[in-house]
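Box 3.1 — From sequence to structure: Restriction endonuclease subunit S
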Amino acid sequence: MSNIKKLLEGVEVEWKTLGEITNILRGKRLTRNLLSANDKYPVFHGGLDPLGYYYNANRPADTVMIINVGASAGTVGYSSVDFWSSDGTYCIEQMAKLNNKFLYYFLLGEQYYLKSRVRVAGIPTLDAFVIEKLQIPIPYPNNLKKSLEIQQEIVRILDSFSMLTAELQAELQARKSQYEYYRNQLLAYPMEESDQSSLRSNRSATSIQNSDNSIQPLSTLNPPTGNSVLQPRGKVEWKVLEEVVEIKRGKRLIKNQLEKTGKYAVYQNCMIPLGYYHKNNVIADTTFIISAGSAGEIGYSDVDFWAADDVYYFVTKNDLKSRFLYHFLITQQQKIYSQVRRSSVPRLSKTAFEKLLIPIPSLEEQEHIVSILDKFDALTTSLTEGLPKEIELRQKQYEYYRNMLLSFPKNNIKLVWDKH
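Predicted structure (token representation):
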């Protein structure tokens, strides 16, 4: 902190509008048939994810861009490589007196303002004059060498924070992949011939109704797998889901019954509570699945809650742990998603999952698997511990220093830190 204060102590600053010192350049549209997945240069249009790739570039590396159309209008970006700017992207022409990465970090702090100036009638659009009128601080305006030195030092500090956050994000992704690997391996039980014979004898357990009313063999939805080096030992019995759980549907509450805060969360058509209610209809330690809206999403609650009518929840029997059921169903999530009827409101029928096959190891083995997977789950998803919490803290730290480093005084006043 003291080094940063020293860096900014007594800095003379001149504020200029972007329109005074540079040009806002609009790109040129390319039709989709000109794009390729294999060409060299990314093409940006309406977002910071490349629309495709092109054999030529119209903007150099080290360029700041601002999306001007679509849902991402007002979003600030930076490219470290040459690229093609489409007409859904404004680029800021490079200039000698301003470090482009310095400009990028400053504009990130103005992103909320830019988004607030987007015209939302029809296709969201950001006008160039909004950007041109933005005021930009130029430290030591009469000493180009000193000005660029302080800009570069600010960039170096902020780059270090950005790099740390990026490394944590990469670590989180690696841990998620590791979690998925171990989860799939730990739950990859082989199906014995006796289990297959038993299931074949139960005609109702050998097929499932698809969203288009066609019939699909369960073996293709939930195929048995071979032995794994991580697979726990012990006898496993395969069961149809409806044999080992009671599947219940929640009960709708009307909006005027809900509160903004309260004891019991109400889940309706997604994993974000619709509101709160003074009663619960489901007890803690329950796995549930959304049947409309975000249909197919699987959740688990360690506290009592209210399930509305777009939620199915599972009441487990004595030989099945609810948390084990949750981890297993997560391995089946993509298969469950494939059974969602896609219409104006996506819907999932109970018949789409009630006959899924599930392995039932001993309770001791279930607890062992749950203890392993819960540790990975906490590391990759918890907002109170693990990597997500660390990323949140680092992001806040980065934003704090970015705002502090770029909070220059106006009207050419020297920046003087409060000694106290």
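Summary of the box: DSSP finds 13 helices and 20 strands in the chain.
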